[in-house]
Amino acid sequence: MTEFILACFAVFRLAELIAVDDGPGDVLLTMRAKLGAYDLDDDGRPATSIGRGIICPWCIGIWLSALAAMAIAPRDWQMGLWWLAIAGGAAFLQRIGGRV
Questions:
Q1: Which domain holds residue 24?
Q2: From its phi and psi, is residue 44 left (phi > 0), alpha (psi between -120 and 50) or beta?
């Protein structure tokens, strides 16, 4: 249970870091710009799917949850359940305390 809670908080924080924070020396801001997050369409959204995904902490949280699930799932066949559970926990944290 402790690993699950820690994984949810870690995924939440890393997703916020990648999607929102500038990072030291603006390294994350520069990364998002190179991936097209600030190249906007007429509707004000990023023009590419990568650009839209890199500024979305929920999207990033899905993929980070997969990595966390691989690290802590007790059995291989349970990895999918852990992936979704960690992603749900991180999304809940994003909903109640996220900046986006």
A1: 2-97
A2: left
